Amino acid sequence: MKQEDKTEEVEIGILPESWHWKEGDDDPVQDLCWKCKEEGRETPVTLNGYVHRVIDEMKHGRTVCQDCIDAYELRKRRNEMKASWEALTPSEYRNTKLNHPTFNTTAHRECQKYSLDTSLFLFGESGTCKTRAMLWRAKLAILKGYSVGILFPDEMKEHAREKYRLDTLKKLALFDWLGLDDLFSCGTNDYMADWIKDLIDRRMRQGKTTVITSQIVEFEWTDEAKKFKNYTNVEMKRIDAIWRRIRERFTPINFDTPQLGSEQTKVLPF
Question: Domains in the chain, ordered, with CATH?
Answer without folding.
Answer: 7-78 (no CATH), 96-254 (3.40.50.300)
